[in-house]
Design brief:
Length: 283
Amino acid sequence: MIDTAGDGGKKPGEVFLSARGLTREFGTGKSKTVAVNKVDFAVRRGEIISIVGESGSGKTTLAKMVLGLLNPSAGEIIFEGKIRDISTQGKRRLYWQNIQAIFQDPFSTYNIFNKVDEVLMDCIRLQSGRLRGGGNLSREEKFEKMKNACKFVNLKFEELSNKYPFELSGGQMQRLMIARIFMLKPKLLIADEPTSMIDACSRATILDMLLKLRDEVDMTIVFITHDIGLAYYISDTVYIMEHGLIVEQGTADQAILHPKSDYTKRLLGDVPKIYEPWDLNSA
Ligand SMILES: Nc1ncnc2c1ncn2[C@@H]1O[C@H](COP(=O)(O)OP(=O)(O)O)[C@@H](O)[C@H]1O
Ligand SMILES: [Mg+2]
């Protein structure tokens, strides 16, 4: 774990979100897959946890259950001290005010016919829908908010505002998605393989922006990756997942520098440089 806060490591707060026995099966009989198998995990406020596993290990299924996009077959999610209840549309909307996601392919997340300023303006609308009276921002105030969000991710609003998503690079588009998150300020961010479709150079930048969201906006982040090196770079706590099961968990140092499970050791075998000074550009 990297101490980016420079304050000797902020102590994460109380448990914010946790899961008990979280399970999801697909299919029945011979074709049954247990994609997520009795998973327990906990995230403290202001913490970054990583879920690491190879393709097919159940990471996205887990993320979708946390997001409330997929019902668990068994188990429960505890959010802010209470068992999460999203049984009605109203309750689900309330839950969704606290949580946002970024996915592997930033281009698939957004309406491709929306220009950059529309993407950001949507966030202002979403927010002002929530805050009573907050919808009365002047045109200048709205532009100021959008410029500020672009500045947070090192994009120049003036150069991009009139562009369509397909005119941006993958790295720029993912940064725009992070600018959105910066504006919406959810309490919890689920980032499902956010760097796996972009070039190595932008990858480090995206990770640093996630760290900045945690350090400057106090966001709690669940980072999902197949790349144990990225998990080591960004996380406080790491969970290693194999065939739906958590096979290893601990602080980034415990789980990655002193792994107990053979599966973790095998994942580490794919990253020979882990014990050497970290060079993200080659990750
Ligand atoms: N909608 C679905 N229907 C059937 N099987 C699914 C579905 N979604 C995921 N699976 C299966 O669940 C397992 C875990 O998939 P997934 O959560 O996407 O893994 P990961 O994100 O780690 O690559 C895989 O075997 C996958 O084929
Ligand atoms: Mg996935």
